[in-house]
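Most newcomers find our protein records easier to grasp once they have seen one. There is nothing in a record beyond a sequence line and a structure line. Getting from the letters to the tokens is the skill we practise here. An example says more than a description, so a record of this kind follows:
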Amino acid sequence: MNNFHIKGVDFQYRYNEITRIGGNPDMLMDFGILRLQKGQIYEDIYNLERAFLLVYGEITLSYNGIEKTIRRKNCFDDSPWVLHIPAGVELKIIGVAEDSEVTVHRTENANIFEPHLYEPKETADEYRGAGTMQETSTRIVRTTFDFSNAPYSNLVIGEVIGFPGKWSSYPPHHHPQPEIYYYKTNPKGGHAFAEVGDDVMKLSENDTILITSGKTHPHVTYPGYALWYLWVIRHIDGNPYIHPTFLPEHLWVTEPNAKFWPFSEKKEA
């Protein structure tokens, strides 16, 4: 384990800090896991841009005179609820289910924008990689907001579900903006492997990896186990994240007519 791979734990019923602005490495954002019991209250009054993604459970959100109860059975079958609020907005979260989990994201941003609660129907399932690579990298990508629909934000937030035994975040790619991945497996007890630059890390439930500038980060999942991961990217001032840079030597595998061993054509002896 290193400071780029944070092993998962059974999180306490409170805010569990994983990274903070100015940390080592500096991901330019706070990130942590909020776990709530029924009736437990969490208040967030940080003077930062913030986003809160419901992983599972049921909670009540109270902000700007709005009160809304949201629920999510699990992060594999259901699309997310994500609350996105600017600096200066006070928030209260109340646990309704016996156990709920929320990812918490905070970063500096002087832009003032209207709070928005993204409903599950606003985050579509995209079957990325389908029809290529012999379906070895078909996965579900859910992007809640990015530069295209929230250009005022300093964050990009989404989810990926890697199918059992398949790759995701492939072909290998990189970008200068820092990114955080946070993981779940289905069923629990599964594992996956992540390449981060020249390092390979074995992933388990509740692990987090921190991806710094220029490091590639593809994954492969254990057969029998699906892999869900939250991904959040922090824009760099003057250089927002739009799309990654793929390693050119591996891009050929995405071509519709790419040939892989064993080749269907018979070879002469």
Notes: The chain has one domain: 5-254.
